[in-house]
Amino acid sequence: MIETASITAVMRALADPTRRAVFEQIVRSDEITVVDLTRAGRVTQGAVSQHLKALKQAGLVTERPEGRKVYYRATPEGLEPLVDWMSHYGLFWRERFADLRTLLKEIDP
Question: Helix (H, G, I), strand (E, B), or coil: what is residue 70?
Fold first, then answer.
């Protein structure tokens, strides 16, 4: 079972634009290696490895070693803390839009 990270860990991991780009590459691929990630961008293999470490610690990616290669895959469950946090604001905005609708009907019946 994969343990999800805290909202702080997820937000911190996704705050870096290069790390977000690496994560997006992983999301678009079924599985991808560090070599493929390095080839696709302008980031060194060492930097990609550091970004992958942060993404793994945040629960956003998993790795699968096979021989000398390690394959990385996005973990959708890792985004759950962010989705849960955002859902609170969905309720906030729905209430505000309902209030606005009421106000507009009062102003222009």
Answer: strand
Strand order in the sheet with 32-33: 32-33, 69-74, 61-66
Counting the structural domains of the chain, the total is: 1
The answer to whether residue 2 is domain-embedded is no
Examine residue 1 and state whether it is found in any structural domain, yes or no.
Answer: no
pLDDT in tens, the chain (109 residues): 344 568 899 999 999 999 999 999 999 998 999 999 998 777 899 999 999 999 999 999 999 999 999 999 999 999 999 888 888 888 888 888 888 888 888 887 7
| Residue 9 near residue 42 (C-beta atoms within 8 A) | no
- Residue 62 sits in which domain range? 7-107
Q: Does residue 30 fall inside a structural domain?
A: yes
Q: Would you say the C-alpha torsion 99, 84, 12, 47 has a positive or negative sign? A: negative
pTM of the model: 0.78
Direct distance between the N- and C-terminal alpha carbons of the chain, in angstroms, rounded to an integer? 56
CATH label of the domain that carries residue 87? 1.10.10.10
